[in-house]
Amino acid sequence: MQAENKTPEGDADEGPINGRMCIVTRETGDPDDLIRFVAAPDGRVVPDLKRQLPGRGCWVKAERPVLEKAIARKLFARALKTDVTAGPELADEVDRLLSVQLAGMMNMARKAAQFVTGAAKVEQAVRGQAAIATFHAVDAAADGVRKIDQARKAMSFVAEDGQEIPSFRFHTEAEMEGLLASNAFIHACALAGQAGEGVVKRANMLERYRGTVPDRAPGDARQMRT
Predict the structure, then answer these.
(1) Which terminus in the chain has less CB density within 10 A, N or C?
(2) pLDDT at position 218, please?
(3) Helices assigned H by DSSP within 157-193
(4) What does DSSP assign to residue 193?
(5) Percent of the chain topping pLDDT 90
(6) What pLDDT is recorded for position 55?
(7) In angstroms, what CA-CA distances link 172 with 104, 192, 202, 209, 218?
(8) Residue 14 CA: distances (Å) to CA of 22, 94, 115, 158, 191
(9) Phi and psi at residue 46, to the nearest 5°
(10) 3-state class of 117 per DSSP?
């Protein structure tokens, strides 16, 4: 898994003790809870998820409504101290990049044998307490999701903290085919390990950014798969 680089010097609104301050809420926080933005040479505001791009940057809380406020209030020009353009499409671009980042981590975890797909294998991993999070296509059939959720609930009674492992539903099967190609899945789970934990970390960030994730995508239920 790629190591996180230190933030380039000269960022706007750095808080005390190396904190980072959101240009909207004025709250300081861990970099993992914020998204860094920089100005591209053509004047566009560019998200810097890996915190590697050179130049002056600014930070926005990793929540879509907060980013939309930064865009509407034209806060990027002031924070970056240059004439920049940030339109409504920036919020969609961040969502897309977060999804791509998550998909890339899933592929890495798969290669490390820390990401399992297929309903039967996922249920087995959950009941064996090997899974640390489950994932479903938004348009997965309810029966397949229910069986795995039952396993999650059952295992919570024997878990040390008594908590169910998290479950995420971000993309339809078609969307995942665009992100993962032949590695697209209906049901999957991350397993313990550096790569598997990286998947969960990025899933948590995408969930925070989106806020509310729909249970199912609109469409004909007859097309849903297990």
Answers:
(1) C
(2) 34
(3) 173-180
(4) S
(5) 76
(6) 87
(7) 17, 25, 18, 18, 10
(8) 9, 22, 36, 43, 35
(9) -120, 130
(10) strand
pTM: 0.84
Task: Tell whether the model's pLDDT for residue 168 goes beyond 90.
Answer: yes
**Each residue's pLDDT tens digit, 22-70:** 999 999 988 889 999 999 999 999 999 999 999 889 999 999 999 999 9
H/E element, 75: helix 75-80
Q: Return the structure tokens found at 67.
A: 């980013």
Give all domains of the chain, ordered by start, each with its CATH number: 20-87 (3.30.1230.10), 95-216 (3.30.1330.30)
Which CB contacts under 8 angstroms, 24+ apart, belong to 175-180? 175/99, 175/138, 176/103, 176/137, 179/99, 179/100, 179/103, 180/103, 180/106, 180/107
Residue 43 identity: G
